[in-house]
Write a structure and sequence with these properties.
heterodimer; A: alpha/beta; Rossmann fold; 2 domains; 6-stranded mixed sheet; 3-stranded antiparallel sheet; 8 helices; 34% helix; B: alpha/beta; two-stranded antiparallel sheet; binds guanosine-5'-triphosphate; binds adenosine-5'-diphosphate; binds magnesium ion
Chain lengths: 262, 238
């Protein structure tokens, strides 16, 4: 990153058209480092399309017709085209990697592509990925042999450590069986802009801003502030209880004793 | 001659026609007049499809027993004249995309190599001539892989040719295509057909099997031959 200082980076999304061709209602959405944003809405409502617009710096050339600016202007060509300058890392819904490489080889090539000059980057990436996931990843394993959750964890760690992008886009990370709370807490500490596409109430409540989508359109941008604090506490408890039960079922236990509310 | 030539190469089903459609839309939006030629081995539908969809002059040629890229070289001169007669300012020639060796690119034209992001990491090295002799590489289907994988794939292409212009796209939607269109707009018409040459080195076509002799064994052939115990090919004049 050398063209624009990360701290001052401002991404602005301008409206396009709904799936049925009407102009979208919102005026503009601004994204700065440190912003934690979630995108919610039914399946097919255009959540992935929204973050995809940011990833490719849409210039009215995607299905949505949206326009994305960087610090108020047209994104510099190197932002879009040179991975070493790209300020964005996106973790897609695809949990398969087709590359015919080992984890180490893949990460090493990505380190070159991103022009990352730090030491031990490959080891650090695998180490972080293994904090997000029960089954450990090893560097000599083929990347195509990783499970969906392992690939997802590795891609998140790769985005943080190798890409070092000030903006992270994550598409439904909760679905691959990774430790989502660990991921969210780690990302919140980094002063990055993080956009989560999610169906998970806990992740949604952890964010500062919620973008609501329907029919390919942003229908609302909510900033509930403290008004949802009680819900966050309650949902956090429920989520922990559920995780515990999930783990017990996973290891083959038959659940006995008193259920909820004990 | 005042016609631009755009040569599109790339293996089967990578999205060449999808890229062509984006180019046609761009040229027509700017009041240009594209024409289209498809060369394929046994079957192709693009000529009919593109004529119906965009109402432009289209043509197809089947190469049958000939190498389709050689067929392209045979007919391209006539095709340029045909395009000019049809009133076109750009001829888009979509190759069959089979030859990874001498490739169909021609001098004084824009050579676009289309490859798919889902090919796997070694594909760019295997297709080195097709990539290395092109002016621009368009990577399609980037919507189907992760960003990190896209960036690793790009690095693999740069191993073949570090300075190449690489454009990543979802060819169906046309994402990122504005960079390709800039290159196309800058391309000059081919003013003299007599100067246009095949860019790659043609294959050694000096073997009597290639010209139709069916007998087996080196004893029955001329040109580049090989005996079982030889370490290398040898040339026999007659
Ligand atoms: N998801 C996705 N599909 C694509 C993309 N580009 C092309 N396709 C699909 O890939 C298939 C092949 O595309 P074509 O454009 O016909 O490929 P081609 O290279 O012209 O094929 P041949 O001329 O038959 O060799 C079609 O089903 C396209 O819709 C892309 O960027 N993303
Ligand atoms: N504004 C829009 N206009 C046209 N098509 C859209 C729009 N938003 C999304 N789509 C298309 O609708 C489909 C579903 O969108 P997607 O973003 O995958 O939904 P989600 O991630 O919410 O499930 C995709 O094919 C996408 O390209
Ligand atoms: Mg989605
Ligand atoms: Mg085709």
């Amino acid at each position: 990153m050398n063209i624009v200082n990360d701290e001052q980076l401002l991404i602005t999304v301008y409206p396009g058209y709904t799936k049925t061709g009407e102009p979208e209602g919102f005026e503009s959405i601004e994204i700065r480092p440190g912003d934690i944003i979630t995108i919610v809405g039914p399946t097919g409502s255009g959540k992935t399309a929204f973050i995809n617009d940011i990833e490719v710096f849409a210039q009215r050339d995607t299905v949505t017709g949206r326009n994305v600016t960087v610090n108020g202007g047209v994104p510099p060509e190197s932002f879009v085209r040179d991975p070493a300058n790209k300020p964005i890392a996106m973790i897609t819904q695809n949990t398969k990697c087709l590359a015919d490489l080992t984890v180490d080889e893949f990460l090493d090539m990505h380190i070159i592509a991103r022009n990352n000059k730090e030491c031990n980057t490959c080891e650090k990436t695998i180490e972080l990925a293994n904090r997000f996931m029960g089954e450990k990843i090893r560097g000599e394993v083929r990347i195509s042999a990783l499970s969906g959750g392992q690939t997802r964890s590795l891609m998140i760690a790769d985005a943080v450590i190798i890409s070092q992008a000030p903006i992270l886009l994550l598409d439904e990370i909760e679905n691959a069986g990774i430790f989502k709370e660990e991921v969210v807490n780690h990302l919140k500490k980094l002063n990055k802009a993080v956009l989560f596409v999610t169906h998970d109430p806990y992740i949604a409540l952890l964010s500062d801003r919620r973008i609501v989508m329907r029919n390919g359109e942003v229908t609302a941008v909510l900033e509930p502030g403290d008004s949802e604090k009680e819900f966050l506490m309650k949902v956090s408890q429920i989520d922990h209880t559920l995780s515990e039960i999930r783990e017990r079922i996973r290891v083959g236990e038959v659940l006995g004793g008193v259920a909820f509310g004990s | 001659m005042a016609v631009k030539l755009i040569v599109i190469a790339g293996p089967p089903s990578v999205g060449k026609t999808a890229v062509v459609k984006q180019i046609i839309k761009h040229i027509k939006r700017n009041n240009g007049a594209p024409a289209y030629l498809k060369v394929d081995v046994v079957v192709a539908f693009e000529d009919i499809e593109l004529k119906e969809e965009y109402n432009i002059p289209t043509k197809k040629v089947y190469s049958g027993d000939l190498c389709p890229d050689h067929m392209g070289i045979m007919v391209i001169r006539d095709a340029m004249e045909w395009a000019e007669k049809e009133g076109a300012d750009t001829l888009i020639y979509e190759s069959a995309g089979l030859c990874l060796r001498c490739t169909p690119y021609i001098s004084d034209s824009l050579g676009i190599c289309v490859i798919s992001a889902v090919f796997g990491t070694h594909a760019p090295l295997k297709m080195a001539p097709m990539i290395g002799l092109s002016d621009v590489v368009v990577v399609t289907k980037t919507d189907l892989i992760s960003q990190a994988e896209k960036e690793v794939f790009r690095e693999q292409i740069r191993k073949v040719s570090p300075e190449l212009d690489i454009i990543e796209t979802n060819a169906i939607q046309g994402t990122g295509m504005q960079y390709l269109m800039k290159v196309i707009d800058m391309q000059k018409p081919m003013d003299d057909l007599n100067h246009a040459m095949l860019r790659g080195i043609p294959p050694l076509g000096v073997c009597t099997i290639c010209v139709g002799k069916k007998e087996i064994g080196w004893q029955n052939h001329f040109g580049v031959i090989r005996r079982l115990e030889d370490d290398d090919n040898i040339y026999r004049g007659e």
